[in-house]
Specification:
The protein is α/β, with parallel strands linked by helices. The chain folds into two domains: about 1-215, Rossmann fold, CATH 3.40.50; about 220-285, Alpha-Beta Plaits (2-Layer Sandwich). About 35% of the residues lie in helices and about 30% in strands. The strands form three sheets. Strands 5-6-7-3-8-9 form a six-stranded mixed sheet, sandwiched between helices. It has a four-stranded antiparallel sheet with strand order 11-12-10-13, with helices on one face. Strands 2-1-4 form a three-stranded antiparallel sheet, with helices on one face. About 30% of the residues are buried.
């Protein structure tokens, strides 16, 4: 079931086109990451689908219903900015205020505070909380109406390593409950560890989208060497599964599909009277894959 569908969504701020003809579909039960460097259009996209920013063109729908979507919004929990709470009130009383504003009652205050690990500190004033604790408190506030969908914008931004680990664990636990989570982040490691699907954006454009294992799959590479590199390169050009051949000093770097078996390749070359002096399997790291994906068109060319 599609929770969110986006069609040709665009937004311009003056001369800057923040989002360009964006098409996305988020299915129920996924933790969907929107990944990209700062300024790629992630936050603008979230603002449009939440009705905070008016798009210049395109459309979107939540749960199959186009906006205005006041009923759909009740099914969406949101954490977009640094949370603001009454510092002199306790977590319990702050959430009671949130419950009154959202009209959802106070029965879930205890379970959500337990879910984010703040139940033991429920009587403490929020002014005594660390930044990480306040972020967990914000997650509790977003979860208070028991939403079907959680939308998070850079949820670990500015946190220390322990705070990051705590928030990531909570998000993963929420996902295991079957809730759909849409998470915008510029941190590759975060998206890799948390998300099941990902959309990669740069300068307002969608570069790739799909299962995270496919979009950010580390590329398989084979380094080969021989006395006659020209003959080796000519032979390799006819071998199925080799996507690219790049000189690397005295060696050739082969970008290959997972179907290419190095042993079979070596045997095939031996049959053509080409003897390898070097054969090494490598995997391109996720970070390198991501950086290449968002590289400038000029650099990519």
């Amino acid at each position: 079931m599609s929770i969110l569908e986006i069609h040709s969504l665009s937004k311009r701020f003056g001369k800057v086109k923040a989002v360009r003809d964006l098409d996305l579909t988020v299915q129920q039960g996924n933790i969907y990451g929107i990944l990209g460097p700062n300024g790629s259009g992630k936050t603008t996209t979230l603002g449009m689908i939440l009705g905070v920013i008016h798009p210049d063109q395109g459309s979107y729908s939540w749960f199959g219903a186009p906006p205005p979507h006041h009923l759909a919004r009740r099914r969406i929990g949101v954490l977009l900015e640094t949370p603001n709470f009454y510092p002199y009130l306790s977590a319990e009383k702050n959430l009671a205020v949130v419950a009154a504003i959202k009209g959802c009652g106070t029965t879930r205050i205890e379970p959500v505070l337990k879910q984010v690990g703040l139940w033991e500190r429920r009587k403490s004033a929020v002014s005594t909380y660390s930044l990480g604790m306040r972020q967990r408190m914000a997650l509790a506030a977003a979860l208070l109406p028991d939403p079907d969908v959680l939308v998070l914008d850079e949820p670990t931004n500015g946190l220390d390593p322990q705070g990051i680990a705590d928030v990531r664990r909570i998000i993963q636990d929420i996902g295991l409950e079957g809730k759909t989570i849409i998470l915008a982040s510029h941190i590759l490691d975060e998206v890799e560890k948390i998300c099941t699907q990902v959309a990669v954006m740069k300068q307002g454009q969608l570069l790739a989208a799909g299962d995270i294992g496919e979009v950010l799959r580390p590329e398989k590479r084979i380094m080969v060497g021989s006395e006659d590199l020209n003959a080796l390169r000519e032979a390799l050009a006819a071998y199925p599964g080799i996507n690219a051949i790049r000189p690397q000093g005295p060696l050739l770097e082969l970008s290959v599909t997972d179907t290419v078996d190095p042993g079979a390749l070596n045997h095939w070359l031996f049959g053509k009277n080409i003897h390898l002096s070097h054969l090494q399997i490598q995997r391109k790291g996720l970070e390198e894959t991501f950086l290449e994906l968002v590289a400038d068109d000029v650099q990519a060319a």
